[in-house]
Protein backbone atom coordinates (compact mmCIF):
# COMPACT_ATOMS: atom_id res chain seq x y z
CA UNK A 1 0.00 0.00 0.00
CA UNK A 2 1.43 3.36 -1.04
CA UNK A 3 2.26 5.81 1.74
CA UNK A 4 0.11 9.02 1.77
CA UNK A 5 1.99 11.93 0.21
CA UNK A 6 1.55 14.21 3.25
CA UNK A 7 3.05 11.57 5.52
CA UNK A 8 6.01 11.19 3.17
CA UNK A 9 6.59 14.96 3.18
CA UNK A 10 6.32 15.07 6.99
CA UNK A 11 8.77 12.20 7.42
CA UNK A 12 11.25 13.69 4.96
CA UNK A 13 11.17 17.06 6.71
CA UNK A 14 11.56 15.49 10.14
CA UNK A 15 14.37 13.25 8.94
CA UNK A 16 16.31 16.22 7.59
CA UNK A 17 15.68 18.13 10.82
CA UNK A 18 16.95 15.18 12.84
CA UNK A 19 20.44 15.66 11.40
CA UNK A 20 20.53 19.45 11.78
CA UNK A 21 18.60 19.74 15.06
CA UNK A 22 18.49 16.26 16.63
CA UNK A 23 17.05 17.33 19.99
CA UNK A 24 14.17 19.18 18.35
CA UNK A 25 13.40 16.29 16.00
CA UNK A 26 13.64 13.80 18.86
CA UNK A 27 11.22 15.83 20.97
CA UNK A 28 8.72 16.27 18.13
CA UNK A 29 8.86 12.54 17.38
CA UNK A 30 8.44 11.59 21.04
CA UNK A 31 5.38 13.79 21.43
CA UNK A 32 3.90 12.27 18.28
CA UNK A 33 4.69 8.77 19.55
CA UNK A 34 2.81 9.47 22.80
CA UNK A 35 -0.23 10.98 21.06
CA UNK A 36 -2.82 8.32 20.23
CA UNK A 37 -5.34 8.63 17.42
CA UNK A 38 -8.97 8.56 18.54
CA UNK A 39 -11.09 6.46 16.22
CA UNK A 40 -14.88 6.53 16.09
CA UNK A 41 -16.68 3.59 17.63
CA UNK A 42 -18.40 1.44 15.00
CA UNK A 43 -22.12 0.77 15.45
CA UNK A 44 -21.61 -2.69 16.95
CA UNK A 45 -19.46 -1.19 19.73
CA UNK A 46 -22.00 1.57 20.36
CA UNK A 47 -24.73 -1.07 20.71
CA UNK A 48 -22.71 -2.95 23.31
CA UNK A 49 -21.88 0.06 25.49
CA UNK A 50 -25.48 1.30 25.25
CA UNK A 51 -26.47 -1.84 27.19
CA UNK A 52 -23.90 -1.17 29.92
CA UNK A 53 -23.83 1.18 32.88
CA UNK A 54 -21.60 4.15 32.03
CA UNK A 55 -19.49 6.00 34.60
CA UNK A 56 -16.59 8.44 34.85
CA UNK A 57 -14.19 7.24 37.53
CA UNK A 58 -12.52 9.64 39.95
CA UNK A 59 -9.23 9.16 38.07
CA UNK A 60 -10.92 10.61 34.96
CA UNK A 61 -11.25 7.27 33.21
CA UNK A 62 -14.47 6.36 31.38
CA UNK A 63 -15.88 2.95 32.29
CA UNK A 64 -18.80 0.70 31.32
CA UNK A 65 -20.19 -2.09 33.50
CA UNK A 66 -22.27 -5.19 32.67
CA UNK A 67 -23.56 -8.01 34.86
CA UNK A 68 -22.84 -9.08 38.42
CA UNK A 69 -20.22 -11.34 39.96
CA UNK A 70 -16.42 -11.51 40.08
CA UNK A 71 -15.00 -8.55 38.17
CA UNK A 72 -13.29 -8.91 34.79
CA UNK A 73 -11.48 -5.83 33.46
CA UNK A 74 -11.19 -5.36 29.68
CA UNK A 75 -8.11 -3.32 28.72
CA UNK A 76 -7.62 -2.15 25.14
CA UNK A 77 -4.46 -1.34 23.21
CA UNK A 78 -2.91 1.79 21.70
CA UNK A 79 -5.32 3.86 19.58
CA UNK A 80 -8.10 1.62 20.89
CA UNK A 81 -11.18 1.68 23.10
CA UNK A 82 -12.50 -0.62 25.78
CA UNK A 83 -15.46 -1.51 23.57
CA UNK A 84 -13.09 -3.13 21.04
CA UNK A 85 -13.20 -6.12 23.39
CA UNK A 86 -16.99 -5.97 23.32
CA UNK A 87 -17.43 -9.47 21.89
CA UNK A 88 -16.28 -10.83 25.25
CA UNK A 89 -19.02 -9.06 27.23
CA UNK A 90 -22.07 -11.29 26.68
CA UNK A 91 -20.23 -14.64 27.07
CA UNK A 92 -18.55 -13.43 30.28
CA UNK A 93 -21.79 -12.06 31.75
CA UNK A 94 -23.58 -15.32 30.89
CA UNK A 95 -20.79 -17.18 32.69
CA UNK A 96 -21.51 -15.23 35.88
CA UNK A 97 -18.95 -12.43 35.73
CA UNK A 98 -19.23 -8.67 36.06
CA UNK A 99 -17.47 -7.09 33.09
CA UNK A 100 -15.86 -3.65 33.19
CA UNK A 101 -14.38 -2.01 30.10
CA UNK A 102 -12.39 1.19 30.41
CA UNK A 103 -11.01 3.72 27.96
CA UNK A 104 -7.37 4.37 28.84
CA UNK A 105 -5.99 7.90 29.27
CA UNK A 106 -6.17 9.98 26.07
CA UNK A 107 -8.19 7.19 24.43
CA UNK A 108 -11.85 6.78 23.56
CA UNK A 109 -14.03 8.96 25.79
CA UNK A 110 -11.38 9.49 28.48
CA UNK A 111 -9.74 12.94 28.56
CA UNK A 112 -6.14 13.73 27.67
CA UNK A 113 -3.94 14.21 24.62
CA UNK A 114 -0.76 12.27 25.36
CA UNK A 115 -0.01 9.18 27.41
CA UNK A 116 2.52 6.39 27.87
CA UNK A 117 2.82 2.87 29.24
CA UNK A 118 3.44 3.96 32.84
CA UNK A 119 0.50 6.38 32.75
CA UNK A 120 -1.74 3.56 31.47
CA UNK A 121 -0.59 1.29 34.31
CA UNK A 122 -1.15 3.98 36.94
CA UNK A 123 -4.67 4.65 35.66
CA UNK A 124 -5.41 0.93 35.87
CA UNK A 125 -4.30 0.97 39.51
CA UNK A 126 -6.40 4.06 40.22
CA UNK A 127 -9.40 2.39 38.58
CA UNK A 128 -9.00 -0.65 40.81
CA UNK A 129 -8.84 1.54 43.90
CA UNK A 130 -12.35 2.69 43.03
CA UNK A 131 -13.80 -0.50 41.56
CA UNK A 132 -12.23 -3.15 43.82
CA UNK A 133 -10.01 -6.11 42.99
CA UNK A 134 -10.41 -7.99 39.72
CA UNK A 135 -10.80 -11.71 39.22
CA UNK A 136 -9.03 -11.25 35.91
CA UNK A 137 -7.80 -8.73 33.39
CA UNK A 138 -8.23 -9.39 29.67
CA UNK A 139 -5.86 -7.09 27.80
CA UNK A 140 -5.06 -6.51 24.14
CA UNK A 141 -1.76 -5.38 22.63
CA UNK A 142 -0.27 -2.31 24.40
CA UNK A 143 -2.82 -2.91 27.16
CA UNK A 144 -1.12 -6.23 27.88
CA UNK A 145 2.22 -4.57 28.61
CA UNK A 146 0.44 -1.97 30.76
CA UNK A 147 -1.28 -4.80 32.66
CA UNK A 148 2.01 -6.55 33.39
CA UNK A 149 3.50 -3.28 34.64
CA UNK A 150 0.43 -2.48 36.75
CA UNK A 151 0.43 -5.98 38.26
CA UNK A 152 3.99 -5.49 39.45
CA UNK A 153 3.00 -2.16 40.99
CA UNK A 154 0.09 -3.56 42.97
CA UNK A 155 -2.81 -4.36 40.64
CA UNK A 156 -4.74 -7.29 42.15
CA UNK A 157 -5.92 -9.89 39.65
CA UNK A 158 -6.18 -13.65 40.09
CA UNK A 159 -5.58 -14.29 36.38
CA UNK A 160 -4.33 -12.41 33.33
CA UNK A 161 -5.26 -12.90 29.68
CA UNK A 162 -2.83 -11.20 27.31
CA UNK A 163 -3.86 -11.06 23.65
CA UNK A 164 -1.30 -9.96 21.05
CA UNK A 165 0.76 -8.41 23.80
CA UNK A 166 4.20 -6.87 23.14
CA UNK A 167 7.29 -7.96 25.03
CA UNK A 168 10.28 -6.33 23.33
CA UNK A 169 9.66 -2.67 24.11
CA UNK A 170 12.97 -1.49 22.69
CA UNK A 171 12.02 -3.02 19.35
CA UNK A 172 8.84 -0.89 19.31
CA UNK A 173 10.92 2.25 19.76
CA UNK A 174 13.39 1.11 17.12
CA UNK A 175 10.65 0.37 14.57
CA UNK A 176 9.13 3.81 15.07
CA UNK A 177 12.40 5.73 14.77
CA UNK A 178 13.36 3.68 11.70
CA UNK A 179 9.95 4.43 10.15
CA UNK A 180 10.54 8.16 10.79
CA UNK A 181 14.13 7.86 9.50
CA UNK A 182 15.61 9.70 12.48
CA UNK A 183 19.32 10.28 12.88
CA UNK A 184 21.16 8.31 15.62
CA UNK A 185 21.35 11.42 17.83
CA UNK A 186 17.66 12.19 17.37
CA UNK A 187 16.84 8.59 18.30
CA UNK A 188 18.65 9.08 21.61
CA UNK A 189 16.73 12.29 22.34
CA UNK A 190 13.48 10.58 21.33
CA UNK A 191 13.94 7.75 23.81
CA UNK A 192 15.30 9.99 26.55
CA UNK A 193 12.25 12.27 26.30
CA UNK A 194 9.80 9.39 26.65
CA UNK A 195 11.74 7.80 29.53
CA UNK A 196 11.76 11.15 31.35
CA UNK A 197 7.99 11.46 30.89
CA UNK A 198 7.45 7.90 32.12
CA UNK A 199 10.04 8.20 34.92
CA UNK A 200 11.29 4.73 34.03
CA UNK A 201 13.76 3.57 31.40
CA UNK A 202 12.80 1.02 28.77
CA UNK A 203 15.26 -1.40 30.35
CA UNK A 204 13.66 -0.96 33.79
CA UNK A 205 10.16 -1.53 32.39
CA UNK A 206 11.37 -4.57 30.45
CA UNK A 207 12.72 -6.10 33.67
CA UNK A 208 9.49 -5.37 35.56
CA UNK A 209 7.13 -6.92 33.00
CA UNK A 210 9.22 -10.09 32.87
CA UNK A 211 8.21 -11.08 36.41
CA UNK A 212 4.54 -11.79 37.12
CA UNK A 213 3.26 -14.38 39.57
CA UNK A 214 -0.39 -14.65 38.48
CA UNK A 215 -1.45 -17.38 36.02
CA UNK A 216 -1.37 -16.01 32.48
CA UNK A 217 -3.12 -17.08 29.29
CA UNK A 218 -1.16 -15.84 26.28
CA UNK A 219 -2.96 -15.63 22.94
CA UNK A 220 -1.15 -14.55 19.78
CA UNK A 221 -1.65 -15.00 16.06
CA UNK A 222 1.23 -16.18 13.89
CA UNK A 223 0.19 -13.69 11.20
CA UNK A 224 0.09 -10.66 13.51
CA UNK A 225 1.78 -7.88 11.52
CA UNK A 226 1.75 -5.31 14.34
CA UNK A 227 3.16 -7.21 17.32
CA UNK A 228 5.50 -10.01 16.19
CA UNK A 229 4.63 -13.58 17.15
CA UNK A 230 8.17 -13.81 18.56
CA UNK A 231 7.10 -11.45 21.37
CA UNK A 232 4.60 -14.05 22.58
CA UNK A 233 7.29 -16.73 22.56
CA UNK A 234 9.56 -14.48 24.63
CA UNK A 235 6.75 -13.81 27.09
CA UNK A 236 6.08 -17.54 27.31
CA UNK A 237 9.74 -18.14 28.20
CA UNK A 238 9.88 -15.44 30.87
CA UNK A 239 6.57 -15.72 32.73
CA UNK A 240 6.15 -18.34 35.45
CA UNK A 241 2.66 -19.81 35.06
CA UNK A 242 1.63 -19.66 31.40
CA UNK A 243 -0.98 -21.25 29.15
CA UNK A 244 -0.52 -20.50 25.45
CA UNK A 245 -2.97 -20.39 22.56
CA UNK A 246 -1.43 -19.88 19.14
CA UNK A 247 -3.77 -18.96 16.28
CA UNK A 248 -3.20 -18.48 12.57
CA UNK A 249 -5.00 -16.12 10.22
CA UNK A 250 -6.75 -13.95 12.82
CA UNK A 251 -4.23 -11.11 12.73
CA UNK A 252 -3.92 -8.39 15.35
CA UNK A 253 -7.56 -7.30 15.69
CA UNK A 254 -9.90 -9.99 14.37
CA UNK A 255 -8.50 -12.17 17.14
CA UNK A 256 -10.78 -10.17 19.48
CA UNK A 257 -13.85 -11.54 17.67
CA UNK A 258 -12.84 -15.19 17.38
CA UNK A 259 -15.19 -17.75 18.94
CA UNK A 260 -12.19 -20.05 19.46
CA UNK A 261 -10.41 -17.33 21.44
CA UNK A 262 -13.49 -16.43 23.49
CA UNK A 263 -14.11 -20.08 24.42
CA UNK A 264 -10.48 -20.61 25.39
CA UNK A 265 -10.61 -17.54 27.64
CA UNK A 266 -13.79 -18.78 29.31
CA UNK A 267 -12.19 -22.17 29.97
CA UNK A 268 -9.14 -20.46 31.49
CA UNK A 269 -11.20 -18.18 33.72
CA UNK A 270 -13.48 -20.97 34.93
CA UNK A 271 -10.62 -23.37 35.74
CA UNK A 272 -9.26 -23.40 39.28
CA UNK A 273 -5.49 -22.96 39.40
TrEMBL record:
Q: Which residues form the AB hydrolase-1 domain?
A: 72-184
Classification via Gene3D superfamilies = alpha/beta hydrolase (3.40.50.1820)
Q: Which InterPro entries match?
A: AB_hydrolase_1, AB_hydrolase_fold, Pept_S33_TAP-like_C
Q: Does the keyword Hydrolase apply?
A: yes
Question: Origin, by domain of life?
Answer: Bacteria
Give a GO molecular function annotation for the protein.
hydrolase activity
Name it: Putative hydrolase
PANTHER family documented for this protein: ALPHA_BETA-HYDROLASES SUPERFAMILY PROTEIN, HYDROLASE
Pinpoint the Peptidase S33 tripeptidyl aminopeptidase-like C-terminal domain residues: 211-271
Q: What's in the keyword line of the UniProt record?
A: Hydrolase
Coiled-coil boundaries: none
From what organism does this protein derive? Answer: Legionella feeleii
Amino acid sequence: MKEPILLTIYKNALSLTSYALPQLAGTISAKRFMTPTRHKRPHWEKNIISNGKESLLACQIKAWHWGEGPKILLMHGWDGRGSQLGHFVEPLVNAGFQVIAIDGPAHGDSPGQRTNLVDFAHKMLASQNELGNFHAVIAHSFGGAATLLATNEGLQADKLVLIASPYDLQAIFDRFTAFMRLSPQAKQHFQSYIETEAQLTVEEIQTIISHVGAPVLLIHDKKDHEIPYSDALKLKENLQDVDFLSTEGLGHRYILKSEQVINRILDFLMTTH
